[in-house]
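Dissemination and training. As part of the outreach component of the grant, students in the summer workshop were shown how a complex can be specified as a set of sequence lines and then modelled as a single object. The example used during the hands-on session is reproduced here so that future cohorts can follow it. Participants entered these lines:
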Amino acid sequence: MKTNILDLEGVAKQASPEVLLSLMRTMVLVRRFEEKIIEVYPMQDMKTPVHLYIGEEAIASGVCAHLKKDDYIFTTHRSHGHCLAKGTGPEMLYAEFYGRSTGCSKGKGGSMHPADPENGILGTTAIVGGGIPLAVGTALASKMKKDGKISVTFFGDGASEEGTFHESLNFASMKQLPVVFICENNSYATTSPISQRQPHDNIAIRAEGYGIPGIAVDGNDVLEVYKAAGEAVQRARDGQGPTLIECKTYRWKGHVGPDCDHEKGCRPIEDLNKWMERCPVEMFKNFLIKNRFISETEYANMLGEIDRELDRSIKAARQCALPDKEELLKDVFHEKK
Amino acid sequence: MPWTKVYTEKTDLKDTLAGEGLRALSYRDALKEAQTQLLRSDESVFLLGEGVDDTGGIFGSTLGLWKEFGKDRVMDLPIAENGMTGVAIGAAMAGMKPIFVHMRMDFLPMCMDQLINHAAKWNYMTGGKVNVPLVVRSIIGRGWGSAAQHSQALHGLFMHIPGLKIAMPSTPYDAKGLLMEAVNDGNPVMFIEHRWVYDYIGYVPEEPYTVPFGKGIIRRPGKDVTVVALSVMVYEAIKAAKTLEAEGIDIEVIDPRTLNPFDDALVIESVKKTGRLVIADVACKTGGVGAEIACRVAESAHEYLKAPVRRVNFPDTPTPCSPVLEEAYYPDAGSIVKAVKELIR
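and obtained this result:
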């Protein structure tokens, strides 16, 4: 089993103990948020297709730790982790998934379309590759307005096959825009393995063709993600243009829903077992305990606190009002004020 | 009213307008003036598109604008229509007001994912939290063997999509007024021009003004047949009216100006008066705007119809190249006259 590549000295240089604990907290929040969904999903009243992020938590946590509240992110159909890591409250997400009018998109978007402009999430697309140019667009706006914000787009390995990926890298490089491209390569597009879709399993090197830095990192190692993202974010803030980071990871659950793919015969269970041994949450927890950043008791307390908050959130969300039927016809167009 | 008038000859009324102390401008220059005034008055407005800063300047409609506003606000683009539409949408979400210009409407199918899946749905999908103030200008081509991929009109496709507004100005006055309205509408607007009206002259006030969406206009009042004409067909309908007038047939020509929102009331009121309806479009027939308009009339004013509805359209084929085939392909004033007479018999 691979352990964190960064030695303790290296870690100390890049992240304070507060940052380390904050990363841990975010990862646990993201993991437990989705495990609560798995618990309630069989009740069949959370009527939205859920694309679970379990196994990939280090990426959203490591990247968003560098972002300010008003920096923009664009996530995907697999949106929960990014929203939580960026600061969206669990209750408004759960309420959205329950189709409640208090949901972050007033119950009109569901799990695939969260919007939380206050935290820089201007909406979410579930079309593969669709969000990449949107982030380039917000970055273009930031550059034109000189507002100092940066934009981050998360997308999967499948999206790197879409034209928008290449169109976006080309344009962002040419205009030196403040945007960071985060490719979460979990090797599968729904159930199609990358070996059947791309000649090389090496997305990061595409950056070179567009004249921007590209780096591949262990997406299950939050510190490695944190370090690479820190450099990319700094480059964007300094006006030095975009970066592509490929985070190699693995999705534990199926493309959609709480089941695992091996149960349907889509993927070998051995692969899942291998990757579960490299659980990003466990690896980081062990690292923190081993190096005395946190004790077992403190970790248990943190977990308990997060669980209580999530239990409260999901319960509260479920009790929120459903939208009035008149809502159906509203919001097709923006009304001029 | 000088601003409602349609001059069917491209240039002949310049002198007439001057005689009345009114300024005459071509459709092309009206578009350019609208963009100039928008760029001057609002820092969030910018133009982007392949060739917006080149020596052709989108058939003259953006010619030289980069000299005043720079190439960051009159921005040439890579040939990447879908991705660049996404970029424009992202910029719009973040508070900019992009005007994305396409020399040919035929390039819009390249952008369908971003237009239909993203721009059109964003306000709804986000529960009204984030809107997309994006204008997409595109031009319908015609003639000189432009053929199947350089002369399509696809407004019917877009009319099917909730969340997109559609403007189709026919006169210079409306070209400026509707564009100034579109940029500040706050929604994605498909702004559809026709290459053949670029040279037409009409009254255009110098100061900024807007033409509201959803308000059609009666270009010529009449009592016998209602002719709803889109874009360049407004001119053909006015020509047809003159021919028919000589034969004692009095048609009412309605220019809807925008397809979404559509001025149902104006058309229905007219049909209640005339009892007959012809729709003259600049596109193929099947599944088109004409079918939608006819159905709305049937739903609301069926009992007033004294005759079947007629559509004047292109045949359901791709556009051909040969001049002989082109001639046969495009309907004109004569086609409208023929359709009207079929209803009067």
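The longest helix of chain B spans residues 27-41. Students were then asked to discuss how this feature might be tested experimentally.
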